[in-house]
Amino acid sequence: MSQLRLLPSWLGARASRLLAPHDVQMFNRPSRSSGPPATFPSGKRGGSSSYMEEMYFAWLENPQSVHKSWDSFFRKANEEATCDPAQPPFPETRPAVSSRTETSKLVEDHLAVQSLIRAYQIRGHHVAQLDPLGILDADLDSFVPSDLITTIDKLAFYDLREADLDKEFQLPTTTFIGGSEHTLSLREIIRRLESTYCQHIGLEFMFINDVEQCQWIRKKFETPGVMQFSSEEKRTLLARLVRSMRFEDFLARKWSSEKRFGLEGCEVMIPALKTIIDKSSEMGIENVILGMPHRGRLNVLANVIRKDLEQIFCQFDPKLEAADEGSGDVKYHLGMYHERINRVTNRNITLSLVANPSHLEAVDPVVQGKTKAEQFYRGDAQGKKVMSILVHGDAAFAGQGVVYETFHLSDLPSYTTNGTVHVVVNNQVCYRRRGHNEMDEPMFTQPLMYKQIHRQVPVLKKYADKLITEGTVTLQEFEEEIAKYDRICEEAYGRSKDKKILHIKHWLDSPWPGFFNVDGEPKSMTCPATGIPEDVLTHIGEVASSVPLEDFKIHTGLSRILRGRADMTKKQTVDWALAEYMAFGSLLKEGIHVRLSGQDVERGTFSHRHHVLHDQEVDRRTCVPMNHLWPDQAPYTVCNSSLSEYGVLGFELGYAMASPNALVLWEAQFGDFHNTAQCIIDQFISTGQAKWVRHNGIVLLLPHGMEGMGPEHSSARPERFLQMSNDDSDAYPVFTEDFEVSQLYDCNWIVVNCSTPANYFHVLRRQVLLPFRKPLIIFTPKSLLRHPEAKSSFDQMVSGTSFQRVISEDGPAAQAPEQVRRLIFCTGKVYYDLVKERSSQGLEEQVAITRLEQISPFPFDLIKTEAEKYPGAELVWCQEEHKNMGYYDYISPRFMTILSRARPIWYVGRDPAAAPATGNRNTHLVSLKKFLDTAFNLQVFEGKTF
């Protein structure tokens, strides 16, 4: 006869709230004792009554089938409740009928206490006292869990009584409130839980899906005595609070009408950051990179980074004139770099605060990229030497998408920094004594809150009074500490008056020592030829067409591509992909680290690159031939990014900040996609040098071309980059011997659209060989990647050759320039369309075509030479982009300047439009034929006047 299985009453109605997912996970782990873990045929999870039944009955049959903690708990409970010493600790069979015995009541009460402990761990932060003003819930939510409201309500919720408060209960292994004690009274359990979770620190951590991490947090906060400060630590905290608060008071006294985004109401952030840095230094960190918004920035510069106070005070001088280049930026945007001794650990530490604009969280990925680069160059693969700290405002942290984009990079191998400390300044945990900034009047919109703020006793006084009362410091010592720092500020203020000018280079967040000078002298403003020896080209081509690893099986389609590379190498020609390979490989030979990042860059969006080979038979086995070129070469990093432009471009920008001796490239999957990274382009890349004297050599590869692929896969929006170029369209330049390089030095960035693989090769190498660093924007091709005419010979890349800013006509028209009736200027892919159309119309002798390879800074000298070479020709600018886009609005006034308005430059291309390209293939072809016809209709402009 089968045995009847009945659930004891103590495992009945309340079973559903006694277990949470973490408990289920714990029960399902194998027992430390021998024997297999219990399996429950009901399959119920998450604290259901059926699951509780199965666990209970499994324990009755075999105590080792449940977790060791539950075995110990049930055994102890049974022993305590059993009065008859002859009765065995476990029943040999399941009871046919169960009643509410003392044993079941005791077990039930223990489970209730465990559930109560868990409730504090999960929801205790809801009743924590986090609002210093006492007028608002810190999380803007008045919800208080019903199981944590009052002692009596708590007890009733868990079916406990007031008489149970003085009973002793066994503590579970998931709490550390007992310290070395294994049992506590219920009254003491509640007191310790409220002390840990319901005071002025709120803990929300039980959502973490890692038991060890949860246990670490519980141990740190629950263990009695661990969260207490020593007398020395209290005195250090007081001294740091004095500096934090008195710095703000000093600025308020001296510059009461200036915006400074002070830290009043959150002064404790300074000692918090300094404590993080102290602990990090103690653990072996040598370099800390910070990013933060405006609030408290000057205070962090002064009291965390330890920037000279006189340099900060100089920034408030209204008659300030920067001695160095650039327009400068407001004081609460600037950065800093400082190497010093950490006084707590007596170890060297480097601190840098990255400059950033008002776009708040835009600095997050920049900091992470800079951190990753510093780790890479130090060989710090585990992040044990270099770390980052990001400070956020609560609203921006939750509301700006780049925060999530940055988090999304955290587990990607070529992007992870192995962890970041995030400090979120919550304006309802602290408060802003002066509103958003010192020019605001917050009483307009928040009168009741700011009445309370005006009555609020500052944290420094509160803490000082506490330490004086307990005897840790005396009133005299406190007053002396204040007087000491006030004196430091006044002396620095006096010195700042003597500084007639500000050297903005003091505010650099990444100095490049030795880069701009050789033996103490400034580098020569010249650029060497960018060609390389033929044997080096051949060697790179051979490696590019091979598989350096043995027993490595590649895809058959890739075998065909490699054979094609080998054939080109033998014929001493290159296509776009092989030219790029040779540029990268030659730089690696010269010790220059190359990093290429973006969406699908390892293979290439258009399946042309294949820098990472994948074994077709061994999972995750890869080979990067570029890293097998030379025995002592620099490393090559090529890495597919997440589907992010804003975050990834910011990351690569930060990476390029760390060292000038690297070529860092970011490739958009299509050039159009950079628009979601526009903030990084506008605020950091275009303006970085002007605002922060921040040289940066990052390269943007933007696939561009009108090929019938629709409005979102065609245009990299060259007009936007050209509009932000800082060269003057109306200034007639002086053509000096070093005109080309001096132009590059003066510009804010370089914009090119190469039409040949050789020129692409040269411009990449020139980027590193220049004696300075400028961002480089390259509009790269799509169809030209495989165009039979878009090839270059080794002769155009060998030693002695260099980048061509303009490529002149070299056909029949160039042999008799006086006979040429039209000179067409163009850039990029449209050149090949024009050449084909000219040939079909038989106009090779009457029409010359000149290519602008470097669009900005504008090659005034070479354009003047080209125009003068064809004195009788009409001048035409031809582009495939719409008239209100592309290059025309940029080149037109510059042509007028260089030609002194003597000759007009006519426009040929698509009409103005709202979208950059049509989505209809036939419409695309019709408009292409139309403007090509116009380009070669030699009568179309006759009789018109300029």
From TrEMBL:
Residues 26-46 are annotated as: Disordered. InterPro entries: 2-oxogl_dehyd_N (IPR032106), 2oxoglutarate_DH_E1 (IPR011603), DH_E1 (IPR001017), KGD_C_sf (IPR042179), ODO-1/KGD_C (IPR031717), THDP-binding (IPR029061), Transketolase-like_Pyr-bd (IPR005475). Its EC number is 1.2.4.2. Gene3D superfamilies: 3.40.50.12470, 3.40.50.970, Multifunctional 2-oxoglutarate metabolism enzyme, C-terminal domain, TPP helical domain. Pfam families: 2-oxogl_dehyd_N, E1_dh, OxoGdeHyase_C, Transket_pyr. Belongs to the alpha-ketoglutarate dehydrogenase family. This is oxoglutarate dehydrogenase (succinyl-transferring). It comes from Canis lupus familiaris.
